[in-house]
Each structure stands twice: as structure tokens, then as C-alpha cells.
């Protein structure tokens, strides 16, 4: 890492204050005592959303006592200052903003809701607005819910599995095999050329003007650094060197861990993999600022590590969110 290469600003989904208290997970009696404690707080999660409320400029997650929590799969999230926290996967008491199936169809504007009125929202809408404790709880709960939702049967024999260890293990009652929550590592990299220009690209599924840095999943038997080099070569045909790790944050959509890098380009001619990339352009700082001001380009939201990488290269905060 060269001088000055430190991420500008916090990684908003890499926050949290609750001790995960892993030793409690295998103690069924301790978990039941924690659930019976009137001080215990419960976060409801449904298809990646929870309830939040606003009071002035502060956005908080709506937490319940265990007596108020609806039935559903229960995940132990940890302890802070003697208070235990759980998540319960269950329908939310108010319908999620979106279509009849609960899919969010437009960005939620939490600032437009009346103070104190609960509203359903996901990490993309409020991950950067919540405080450290609530952001950490929601990232954790969303990741566990997504994994449990797709791993309800044993991959060995197909039998329905059972939730154990506070939601951190699923056990097959037929063959006794244990299955643990999965995390998929993905590299995300800002590529710079010899003139310190930044390469931004647009996926084919994105509307015109929506641009970001390159990213891709790490393959089996591959180091993070090799994944950076391979993904850039595959997506835009550019050879890069000196991958430099800058930071990471969970990205539970559904279960990724994004590992951020800078890398130096050995060439500037772009050859697109059109299945992955619709366009890619080099920007100076002045060119990017101008494109953002005109509305020609929009950047990923501040909750993403992509935005942090771009602003770190730029040297300051930028406007123009998706």
C-alpha cells in the first residue's frame, strides 16, 4: 500500500457494537434464558427488510420484546451491555414498501415518512442511516435469513434440516451432518492508469449513466490478488499489477463479502466482455466531477464499498448517487 491509500470515510456495512457471543450458541439453556429475559430485544427480518423509524435526523431499527415477537426462525445475534439480541424471520407487521410480493420497486425516502412511523426498509435504503449497533444487527440478520432461506434441505440426502446453535448451524436429522452459513468472497477493485485516471464501467443490466468499479467472485483455489488480476483481464481486457488491499465489508445480497483493492493498469486499451460490461471509460478527477455535475454519470450509493474506493481515489466526497 502506497502513501495516502487509506479508505476515505467509514465502510457503512462494516459497523457493529454487539458482541456475537459465540460461546452461547451451543448452550441451549443459556439461549432460552436469554429469550425469557424481559430486557432482550428482537429485530424482525423479512426478505431482507426490517422496520425502521425516524425521529428528526435519527433513524433507528424497531426492536421488540420477546413477548411481542411473532413466531418464526430465531437467530441469536449477541449481547451488548447485558442485553441479548435476537432476530426472528417473520412477516413484518406493516407491508414492505413495493409490490404485492414485498419487492421494493422504488428507493425508499425515509426522510419523507412522519416521525415515529415504522416503515419497512432494507440495507440499501437505510444501511448508511442507522447507528453502529442497528446497522450491525441488520447486516447480520439479513445475511442469516438469506442463508437459511436457501439451505432448508440437506445437500447430502435431501432431508429437511433443523436450526440449531442459535441459527448458526442447520443439522440433518437423518444423517447427522452439520451445515454452516456460507459467505462468498468477492473482490472489488478500482483500476488506475499511469496518469492516475480511474476506470469506471457499466453493467449491461444498468441504465445509461450508472457506473461503478469492477468486481467479481473469487474462484476455488484462487487468492484474492489473483482474482483481481483475472477479473479485470476478463471484463475489460486490461492487465493490472500491484493489487493493494484497502478494506472489506459484508454485502448480504445475498451472502457476499466484498474485499476492496486498488490496482495499477499496464495498458489502457479496453476490450469489453459484453456479457459482463456494456461500457467502460477512463476518467480524470476533473472529468468525473464534470460528468457528475451534468448528470451524465451517477455513482453507487455511500453504503457501498465501490463508492468508498472511488472517493478515496478522488480525494474527497462526491455527489450523484444511483
**Biggest sheet details:** 4 strands, mixed
Radius of gyration: 21 Å
The portion of residues forming beta strands comes to 25-35%
> End-to-end span in angstroms?
30 Å
> What's the count of strands?
16
Helical stretch tally: 6
Structural class: alpha+beta
Oligomer: single chain
Q: Give the rounded overall mean pLDDT.
A: 93
Spatial order of the strands forming the largest sheet: 4-1-6-5
What global shape is seen? globular
Low-confidence stretches: 102-107
SSE blueprint and pairings:
Elements: H1 28-36, E1 41-45, E2 49-55, E3 58-61, E4 63-64, E5 73-80, E6 83-89, E7 119-122, H2 123-126, H3 132-150, E8 162-164, E9 169-171, E10 178-179, E11 184-192, E12 198-202, E13 214-217, H4 224-236, E14 240-251, E15 256-265, E16 279-283, H5 285-294, H6 305-314
Parallel strand pairs: 1-6, 11-15
Antiparallel strand pairs: 1-4, 2-3, 2-7, 5-6, 8-9, 9-10, 11-13, 12-16, 14-15
At a glance:
This protein is an alpha+beta fold.
Primary descriptors:
single chain; 322 residues; four-stranded mixed beta sheet; alpha+beta; 6 helices
Describe the structure.
The protein has 322 residues and is an alpha+beta fold. Helices cover 20% and strands 28% of the residues. The chain contains 6 helices and 16 strands. It has helices at residues 28-36, 123-126, 132-150, 224-236, 285-294, 305-314, and strands at residues 41-45, 49-55, 58-61, 63-64, 73-80, 83-89, 119-122, 162-164, 169-171, 178-179, 184-192, 198-202, 214-217, 240-251, 256-265, 279-283. It has a 4-stranded mixed beta sheet, sandwiched between helices. A 4-stranded mixed beta sheet has the order 13-11-15-14, sandwiched between helices. A 3-stranded antiparallel beta sheet has the order 3-2-7. Strand 5 (73-80) and strand 6 (83-89) form a beta hairpin. It is globular. The two termini are 30 Å apart. Residues 102-107 have low confidence and may be disordered.
